[in-house]
Write the structure tokens for this entry.
Amino acid sequence: MQLTLWTYEGPPHVGAMRVATALTDVRYVLHAPQGDTYADLLFTMIERRDRRPPVTYTTFQARDLGGDTAELFKSAARDAYERFQPKALLVGSSCTAELIQDDPGGLAQGLKLPIPVVALELPAYQRKENWGASETLYQLVRALAPRREAVPRRPVRERKCCNLLGATALGFRHRDDVAEITRLLAQIGVDVHVVAPLDASAADIARLHEADFNVVLYPEIAGQAANYLQRAFGQPFTKTVPIGVGATREFIAEVAQLAGIDAGALLAKSSSRASWYSRSVDSTYLTGKRVFVFGDATHAVAAARIASEELGFQVVGLGTYSREFARQVREAAALYGVEPLISDDYLEVEQKIAEAQPELVLGTQMERHIAKRLKLPCAVISAPVHVQDFPARYSPQMGFEGAAVLFDTWVHPLMMGLEEHLLAMFREDFEFHEGAAASHLSHAGAPREQHMVSSQPPVVEPAPAPAANEPAPVVTAWAPDAQKELQKIPFFVRGKARRNTERFALDRGLATITVETLYDAKAHFGR
């Protein structure tokens, strides 16, 4: 654990909260100090849920540490059962409460409650949020599933059915992904038996074994549970995550094989507008754009494939904060000839993005901030995300409709950036300069106020000359006309042009960059 201003994942008990909040009749009793109730805000403020998570906190204070904190936990667990009447109870400790070692699992079992009690051992100082969600779902499935010998043979159905595993509360577009994949499965001819944990009950978890196979939407969360169901009940599960047109077609073929269905007709007619849009005339200028991808492993690997194979981008960086899935990301990075970035340090990520000089960043909420500082277009593809990435509209990432959403989300920042560049190019035009009236008002409009803040970057004043015994300063100042000329360079290469010009001037000992210096540098690096 490290002290940081930003973290890609919370502690593992937040992952457990995501699973508990997704379920309909399960309560989570969390042994935690007073300050750890902050996690509620993730669901009510960020995800905009209309109710608080089903979590009961013991909320012990410093003065309680000299007393019996174990008794506090037992009282909280007993009260939670009596008040909320859950069908199953999850119990565990927050990262702070873990230090006092009160053993919530043993204490809860000692209460002899008439419902299943699932003890969660989540090592807060070694693991993080996604692992906590995965472990919680796995332990819940193990606890609620029937004994293997008590399970009858799976009946032969006219239509095969499957479970959708992995969607949770606070998940990035999970709600819409479930709706899109459910619709896609219906077109294949497969019914959805249970969606878990999102909107599932304890009874639904107990009947997961009845399905013919499982569809793993998010391996970081559902992979462990799917492996258990395969070992215990012989249920196969899908390996393809249907993000992007190519992956969706492969997913259809994989599901059809598991269900024993011929999906040839569906594959022949299935398509996405994104496929045509990416080949259309107004998208051809996007070919070869440099893109840096970072996020959870599932979304990062999928995004890199879409960027390279479906949009014609050049992947210049690929990374993840999901250390448990580092191998998959390394394998994907090798396909694009880039060095994989496995890190949860946002400062290292920012450094790698700056070094790669991409023209588009695909990442998390943190990469949105990084790209803004570096003046780069950005689209969010993965958790962690902020409130604007829980839209009221239907906006999946999976399936053919998800591919269209991705196309719009990724391409629009580039198009808007081009529009801004054109406006900047014509800023001094008689019709668009700062003092001109709004063009739609013709001659009747009054000039705009002259005190408007200029959009030109500030000019760096030259530093004072060094003394005779001092080395020359390592600074370069831009002359006003050179700064003005720099703004005419397209936004997506302006940063590179600035860096190259400053390096050119520094190598030649030039204290001030003029227009001539700018064009000399261009000629030098263009050889």
User: Anything to note?
Assistant: The longest helix spans residues 399-425.
